[in-house]
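Lab notebook, bench 4. Continuing the backlog of folding jobs that were queued last week. Each job is logged with the same field layout so the records can be merged later without manual cleanup. Today's entry covers Protein-L-isoaspartate O-methyltransferase, a 218-residue chain. Filled in by technician R.K.

JOB TYPE: sequence-to-structure
TARGET: Protein-L-isoaspartate O-methyltransferase
LENGTH: 218
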Amino acid sequence: MSVRAVDAGQASRARARMVDRLRTQGIRDERVLAAMQAVPRHQFVDEGLAFSAYDDTPLPIGFQQTISQPFVVARMIELLVGGRELGRVLEVGAGCGYQAAVLSRLATEVYAVERIRGLLDRARDNLRPLRLPNVRLKLADGSLGLPEAAPFDSIVVAAAAIGLPQALRDQLAPGGRLIVPIGAGAQQRLLLVERQGKVFKESWCEAVRFVPLLTGME
Ligand code: SAH
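JOB STATUS: finished
OUTPUT FIELD FOLLOWS
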């Protein structure tokens, strides 16, 4: 039986269990939890993987890329919110479009960029039925940010950088927050950057494991 064909109630109950688990894992922001409850994660992965969509595990999305486990998605967004409104958001690494859909419920606008054309097409197909009017997808090298839509109140990078790209720092609005995994291989940690006027405050958060941030487009 195709799990994609499961009834909405079944999927919603699986998400409720996922949200309960996120609470026990320490996610506190109710708006983030509500957004995680609302987005049908199983519709963003291959049918054969849909049964694991709500488990606490990363999943392959094709093109040797992965979607992070629900805890990491929720934690990054919670750190990004930091008690403010998300406002206008740049997501670098749209992948299958899942995180963009979660962000769209908390943001005024989401600009999600992806460097692999085939994945961007997949994200578009996944997002279409959800009819989210405030998500824009673009094929671009996100290490350069998205100058035509900058500045952003919030920037989330879904791939690990060796160092924070200067363009992303430059495209952060005053009062803005940016979250990025920094490091290589197994040695990665989330870096939170808060812009207060001309000052950029940096704090290190938990250890994570992301695919690398690459340059150029495919
Ligand atoms: N947030 C995604 C998962 C991202 S996986 C989701 O919800 O599905 C990381 C993604 O970052 C991959 O799709 C990879 O192709 C993309 N990526 C890596 N470097 C990039 C760059 N410089 N610009 C844009 N996307 C990039």
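OBSERVATION: Residues 61, 65-67, 92-93, 95-96, 98-99, 113-116, 119, 141-143, 158-159, 211, 213-215 surround S-adenosyl-L-homocysteine (CB under 6 Å).
SIGNED: R.K.
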